[in-house]
Design a protein that fits this description.
Elements: H1 2-17, H2 32-51, H3 60-86, H4 90-112, H5 114-119, H6 129-142
């Protein structure tokens, strides 16, 4: 009886060896339109802010630009870059992630001084202009 049970268990194991396991991969939508849209919008908004037109440089205008650069331009860019890594698109992943990190840093730098900028205590982009300009020059030279 024990031999009969052993043979049936062995046959059952051989049947499972021939079965194939299928892995289901959930596709990721193309994140390039999201990354490019946030890149274009944030770049245009920052350009208008630096030039001093359309977006006022004091008060609510500065807060709009800072929050847009930090959240929409920075965090969404990083997320688009991570989705590009999942799709194995290294070039787009590097571009989106690095630009997103730059915008998060830019938003954090200017966001920390946001209440002072909004109150008019520190003129915008003047008291720390040399540090801001040198970091942007290094950024553009690296990319």
């Amino acid at each position: 009886m024990a031999q009969y049970a052993f043979e049936h268990e062995h046959e059952h194991e051989q049947e499972h060896e021939h079965e194939q396991v299928e892995t289901v991969v959930t596709p990721v939508a193309d994140p390039i339109p999201l990354g490019m849209g946030t890149l274009a919008f944030t770049t245009a908004l920052l350009g208008c802010f630096y030039a001093g037109f359309i977006v006022p440089s004091l008060g609510p205008g500065a807060r709009i630009v800072i929050s847009t650069a930090l959240f929409f331009g920075g965090i969404v860019q990083i997320l688009a870059g991570m989705w590009e890594f999942k799709k194995a698109n290294t070039v787009a992943a590097t571009i989106f992630s690095s630009y997103g990190g730059f915008l998060v840093a830019l938003g954090a730098i200017f966001g920390a001084l946001g209440p002072l900028l909004g109150a008019g205590i520190i003129p915008p982009l003047v008291s720390y202009s040399s540090a801001g300009q040198s970091s942007q020059v290094c950024w553009f030279l690296a990319h």
